[in-house]
Amino acid sequence: MKTLIRNGRIITAVDDYRADILIEGETISVIGAKLEMEADRVIDASGKLVIPGGIDPHTHMELPFGGTQASDDFRTGTIAAAHGGTTSIIDFAVQYKGQALIEAVDNWHQKAEGKTAIDYGFHLITTELEDNQIEEMHTLMDEGITSFKLFMAYPGVFLVDDATIFRAMSAAGERGGLICMHAENGIVINEIIKRALAQGRTAPKYHALTRPTRAEAEGVHRAIAIAEMAEAPVYIVHLSCADALEQVREARDRGLPAFAETCPQYLFLSYDNYEEPGFEGAKYVMTPPLREKWNQAELWKGLKMDDLQVISTDHCPFCMKEQKELGKDDFSKIPNGAPGVEHRVPLIYNGGVVENRISLNRFVELTSTAAAKMFGLFPKKGTIAVGSDADIVIFDAERQQTISAATHHMNVDYSAYEGKTITGVVETVLSRGRVVIENGEYVGQAGDGKFLKRGTCVAM
Ligand code: URP
Ligand code: ZN
Ligand code: ZN
After folding, report:
1. What atom of ligand 1 comes closest to residue 287's alpha carbon?
2. Is the CB–ligand 1 distance for residue 182 below 6 Å?
3. Which ligand is nearest to the CA of 63?
4. Checking phi first, is residue 368 left (phi over 0); if not, alpha (psi -120 to 50) or beta?
5. Is the pLDDT score of 460 beyond 90?
6. Which domains, ranges and CATH numbers included, belong to the chain?
7. pLDDT of 286-300, one tens digit each?
8. What is the pLDDT at residue 31?
């Protein structure tokens, strides 16, 4: 099967030019001006941007959490991702206490296999790592699971102690692997939560008010210090505020391999959302929480100056009905997480490029290329080049859309951006050469997506 994309404006992390792209099978084979080759299918991209498929390295499909589970499975979640121009996700498999690392990953393979619309990889949330499990960690790395998430939060569930963090960083670092850190001092936070509940403070906004930015900054500082002692890199996930960013900036200025991502919710939403009437604030109960609005400008500055390298979503949807409602009388029982996988690329285009905060090239870098390099997918993914997978988005940079739960494709009964009008619409999406979104409609088949056996980080 040959596909020719004609007349588009190709944008990568470094290029901006007009050319045609010939795709043979799953791969880009020729890029050039006015290609004369025959093709089975010709797509006219006149007047459109042609960008690499987005990579979202932080999703939680079907994550069991707080007595329920994330409402998108690998089918609905990846179809929604494709609608929004994302062609690869990296989801978090979970090792429960007492479980072998390999068993945990097998469990996630079973959830995803045959279901996905786009390609997918896994990180492993590691909740136990004794010396005798390090061999297993290395086996997983050989199988393409080259990054591991550790938690400093959620005592009794996911939290690991500093010894485990040090062991994991040393063991992963030895082989070029990467530790992703949920950096928040969960022990202190739990004490603050107990105090709030004892004072009768049960509304959703107390989720934010019991998780101070200092708790995140302390976690980031400690994660980086432990990584430095382990002589390993570290990647801070879902960084939400200026306090925490300052820790990353200071480390990077010292030349340390400290990396971080932020997410659209921290760039476009704020603490004010928790003050919405009634129980509406529960829509935004995620961890870390939304912060005071002034933090947004600091995060954009961090993205511009490369103190933040990646924008992911931390997509972890729970419906208001029956799921968020579990915490109607106690904010600490509201399942933590929010939907986002569908709108990351257009939201960042609108808030970044249209609103003059970042360049077009940086937009592509933040939503695709940097994640490919960070998580061992580059140059197969994350760029438009001869030999790369034909993961391509044809993006209408002029058209507008209004985000709404009534029209989105995520399996969740609300949108955190309800009614927001943005410029930029994903028109056509190719995943390894197959058209999966055509004029905004899903035309692929469940199971089109393939497991991504990832290499190691090349971002350093
Ligand atoms: O609230 C969140 N972020 N839920 C997903 C789990 C995590 O910590 O990433
Ligand atoms: Zn987390
Ligand atoms: Zn997460």
Report:
1. 1
2. yes
3. 1
4. alpha
5. no
6. 2-51+383-442 (2.30.40.10), 53-374 (3.20.20.140)
7. 999 999 999 999 999
8. 98
